[in-house]
Structure formats: C-alpha cells, structure tokens
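Bumping with the actual sequence this time:
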Amino acid sequence: MLLSAGRELWLKPPGGSRPLPLADPGGAGGRHAAGPAVLKLVASLTAGFFLACWVVYLLAWAGVVSLAGCLPLALYPLYSAASALGWGAGMVYVQLTRPLPRRARRRTFLLSFFAPPGLLFLLWALTPTAAQQAAPLVPLYALGVFAILFAVPVSMRHIGRGPVEPGSR
C-alpha cells in the first residue's frame, strides 16, 4: 500500500512493520529536489553555448575566422533545424516563465528568442561559399521559421489553464 508522507512515497508491508521508503524520481509534484539549481545550470550552459555560436558567427562575418565549406549543409536541413529550435525554445520559454513576474518574463524572452538563432547563423556560415552566394537570404528565412515556431507555444500558453487573472498575460 502506498502512503504519502511529505515529499516521499512509503511502502507499508502488510505485517504492520516499519514503512520502507520508495524512490520517487519525480519528487513532489513531479519536481526534483535539486530542480532550481539544475535548471539554472542547464540554462546557463545553453545560453553560453548559443552566445558562443553568435561570437563565432560574428568572427566569421568579420573575416577573422574562415568557416565556409566546413559543413556541406543544404537548405532543407537548415530549415528543419530552425523549426525544431524554434519550437523547442518556445516550449522552454513557456515552462520557464510560468511562475515569473512580467518584468522577469521580458528578460527571459530576450534571451530565449535572440540567443538560439546564433546556432542557425553559425550553421549557415559553415555551408559552402557557393551555397551562401546562391541563396543569400536563407538565414533570414530560417530566422522567420524560427520566429513563427517560437510563437506557437508562446501564444498557446494559457489555453486550458482555467480563468486567467487580469494583467497576467
């Protein structure tokens, strides 16, 4: 028989002896005990990765680093990466900003929306020079795909959550 005892689940044997703790990987409410610390670490690492992508792209754009031709990437995989990155960044933004006040949501939006496209621009800088010259607007189109698919989960964040307080959107 399972009994709730605070944040842990306990198994009580039929003989009435001492209850034995069971491992609850989700913790209380599906949250891990080290959730905020782990979340902060993962957020810092991903933000650092995306900002490093922007730095490398800007160095390539300035001519300091030569990246063209390092990755034989066609247009469709870049758009696929843009769609997956946009959807994923939108979902992460929605999950991160649910408990935050409006001001903190704005700062999180800036980081969530403008940091991940650095990976797309870096992938574009790695494509061969002939592909870059044949279709120079591809990074902007990929940014558009990212933005549209980022907006989908963000625009649906309040659907199915019951009544909404005024000013919380």
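The tokens above came from a reply further down the thread. Residues 1-10, 20-34 have pLDDT under 50 and may be disordered.
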